[in-house]
């Protein structure tokens, strides 16, 4: 009997289908079957956490043994690069942001929208600007000593001080120098941007834990999870595997915490089909030599150097795809 690495996910789908609470979502107008505080844990060391009950990507046209995870890879690379435009996301593999950019009436009427394909300030974490006010010259000098620069000088003797925080670089530096740190967090959550984007990030915070056997665990926090369409299990595992390659560690546990995990009524027929299908063996995730272990001399910008062709699956078998539309 094949080991089903994705069993916690399918158990959640079944729970939502049979026991989920029901309401009509005001934003979409669709009936939802939902659960609050859904928590799933997977073994990230035994094979890639791919959904084999429905096809989740395509074969490479030039090298058919390579299976391309377009959606998860495109979303992750766009996340790394801080993309805001749907066309940029498409260039790295995913088209999911077009619907949010151009198909949501509230966003189309939002004064912060810059035009076609713009999603506004969705993943604003790649370079976080930390600003504060220095009340006098002494405080200004203190901030400068600790990495800030003067962004603006006031006529009242005060100064606006700023520094840039690169979360992904900080994560790698910490893994290389102090892996037992319990503050290895990457977050796209910024409450000041909620009204300035088409949709606040659904997957917003990733926390890492290093273990003494040199394995690394990851925990993904989501405010909202469309469990049938969204590929957050694959996205989270992929993030972990990339970090492990860069930091010369081994993948460990993959955990997902969803504040609201849901199924839309329009997806019920597709979910019923998924739940009666069996599983194929887990495929192998392959990362190219372009993604290689870093040192303190070259870790900066490592995530931005990753390209879509650097990531693929081998040995992926699945049932046919099931076509469903994303609810806007």
> What share of the residues does DSSP label as strand, in percent?
25-35%
DSSP E strands, number: 14
Domain tally: 2
- Identify the CATH class of the largest domain: Alpha Beta
Low-confidence stretches: none
Q: If you average the pLDDT, what whole number results?
A: 94
- The CATH superfamily of the largest domain appears as Thymidylate synthase/dCMP hydroxymethylase domain
Distance between the termini: 39 Å
Radius of gyration: 21 Å
What letter string, H or E per element, gives the SSE order?
HEEEEHHHHEHEEHEEEEHEHEE
Structure classification: alpha+beta
User: Do you know the CATH architecture of the largest domain?
Assistant: 2-Layer Sandwich
């Amino acid at each position: 009997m094949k080991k089903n690495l994705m069993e916690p996910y399918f158990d959640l789908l079944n729970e939502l289908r049979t026991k989920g609470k029901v309401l009509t979502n005001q934003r979409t107008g669709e009936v939802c079957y939902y659960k609050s505080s859904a928590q799933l844990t997977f073994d990230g060391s035994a094979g890639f956490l791919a959904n084999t009950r429905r096809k989740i990507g395509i074969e490479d046209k030039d090298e058919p043994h390579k299976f391309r995870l377009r959606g998860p890879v495109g979303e992750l690379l766009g996340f790394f690069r801080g993309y805001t435009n749907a066309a940029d996301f498409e260039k790295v593999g995913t088209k999911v942001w077009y619907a949010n950019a151009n198909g949501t009436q509230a966003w189309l009427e939002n004064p912060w929208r810059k035009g076609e394909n713009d999603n506004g300030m969705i993943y604003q974490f790649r370079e976080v600007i930390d600003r504060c006010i220095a009340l006098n010259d002494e405080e200004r000098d203190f901030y400068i000593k600790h990495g800030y620069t003067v962004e603006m000088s006031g006529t009242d003797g005060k100064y606006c001080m700023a520094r840039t925080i690169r979360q992904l670089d900080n994560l790698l530096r910490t893994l290389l120098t102090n892996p037992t740190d319990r503050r290895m967090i990457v977050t796209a959550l910024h409450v000041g941007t909620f009204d300035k984007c088409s949709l606040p990030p659904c997957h917003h915070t990733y926390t890492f834990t290093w273990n003494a056997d040199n394995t690394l665990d990851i925990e993904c926090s989501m405010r909202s999870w469309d469990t049938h369409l969204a590929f957050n299990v694959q996205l989270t595992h992929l993030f972990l595997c990339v970090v492990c390659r860069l930091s010369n560690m081994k993948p460990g546990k993959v955990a997902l915490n969803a504040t609201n995990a849901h199924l839309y009524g329009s997806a019920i027929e597709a979910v019923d089909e998924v739940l009666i299908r069996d599983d194929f063996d887990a495929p192998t995730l392959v990362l190219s030599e372009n993604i290689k272990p870093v040192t303190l001399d070259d870790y900066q910008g490592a995530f931005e150097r990753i390209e879509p062709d650097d990531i693929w699956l081998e040995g992926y078998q699945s049932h046919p795809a099931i076509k469903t539309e994303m609810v806007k």
